[in-house]
Write a structure and sequence with these properties.
alpha/beta; 119 residues; globular; single chain; five-stranded parallel sheet; 5 helices
């Protein structure tokens, strides 16, 4: 079973994402920071979901490290719609998909199913 790494310390987000990931055949692993996220993607990882509110996050650095380590990895970033600068920074960093938290809540099943289908 392929893995989805969630970069976040938000337990509520984790609970919502885990259910959607499981429906799509992905096992979710939570990483509290960039270093742990990079390590977690080393083994059978299909996707990374980055919470743009994660403390100490350098989105450009993280995306670059993930791309160098794991070919074919889908990188999704999410954040509150009021954090337009962080959302734009994620787009500029090269995330495959950048969504608001509301979009993620509504569309998580479809987002993860698309990632699985692209594998």
């Amino acid at each position: 079973m392929s893995k989805l790494v969630l970069v976040s310390g938000d337990l509520m987000l984790g609970a919502r994402v885990e259910g959607a990931a499981r429906k799509c055949g992905l096992t979710m692993v939570t990483a509290a920071g960039q270093t742990l996220a990079i390590a977690a993607t080393a083994d059978d990882c299909r996707a990374v979901l980055i919470d743009l509110r994660a403390p100490g996050l350098n989105i450009a650095e993280l995306v670059e490290a993930l791309r160098q380590q794991t070919a074919g990895l889908s990188i999704v970033a999410c954040g509150p719609h009021v954090h337009a600068e962080r959302l734009e920074a994620a787009r500029q960093a090269g995330c495959d998909l950048v969504v608001t938290r509301g979009q993620l809540d509504r569309e998580a099943d479809a987002i993860f199913q698309r990632i699985v289908n692209e594998a």
